[in-house]
Design a protein that fits this description.
Layout: E1 11-18, E2 24-31, E3 37-43, E4 47-49, E5 55-57, H1 60-68, H2 78-94, E6 99-101, H3 102-116, H4 118-128, H5 134-146, H6 154-161
Parallel strand pairs: 4-6
Antiparallel strand pairs: 1-2, 2-3, 4-5
The chain binds zinc ion (ZN).
Zinc ion (ZN) is lined by residues 3, 5-6, 8, 31, 33-34, 36.
């Protein structure tokens, strides 16, 4: 991304957030040469490849639909779900890949869902990972107890998004 002030071609991302439709990402950048800050709106492709081989654009609504069943009766509101879907999208976009397997979407859902609600997480994981026995649940619960969830810091998110290559130049 070229600095609009000094034309230097390297900049650091200081903030990053998806725009409303999710297909665009707004980044606050800082020029590594002159230190000027500027905002870019970048269009990034993100397609989800299904097991059948068909692909479709990533949709936050589908993420929400996928987890809302697991969240039934739990103290999780629409804002929580919207935030979760946003974090999933950020995680997937941070991989820098334009195409992501559907399986990866499920994986990206697990961590933020666990932070949101452990019961909903267990329900989702049981379907997603095809738990087939009580032992599977016991094993997962033991893991939950052994490693309390720690929210990812904003810093690590920003660091990972700097690796994203966008289609816009
Ligand atoms: Zn500059």
């Amino acid at each position: 991304m070229i600095c609009p002030f000094c034309r230097h071609d390297d900049s650091r991302v200081v903030d990053s957030r998806p725009a409303e439709d999710g297909a665009q990402i707004r980044r606050r950048r800082e020029c590594t040469e002159c230190g000027a800050r500027f905002t870019t709106q970048e269009t990034t492709l993100l397609n989800i490849v299904k097991r059948s081989g068909a692909s479709e654009p990533f949709s936050r609504e589908k993420v929400i639909a996928g987890v809302s069943k697991a969240c039934q009766g739990r103290p999780v509101n629409n804002d929580d779900l919207a935030l979760l879907a946003m974090r999933v999208e950020e995680t997937l976009r941070a991989t820098g890949q334009a195409e992501i397997e559907a399986q990866e979407v499920g994986l990206a859902i697990l961590a933020p869902l666990r932070e949101l609600d452990e019961v909903a997480y267990l329900r989702f994981a049981s379907v997603y990972r095809s738990f087939s026995s009580l032992q599977d649940f016991e094993g997962e619960i033991a893991l939950l107890r052994a490693a309390p969830s720690t929210p990812a810091s904003n810093n690590s998110l920003i660091k990972s998004t700097t690796a994203v290559t966008s289609s816009g130049k």
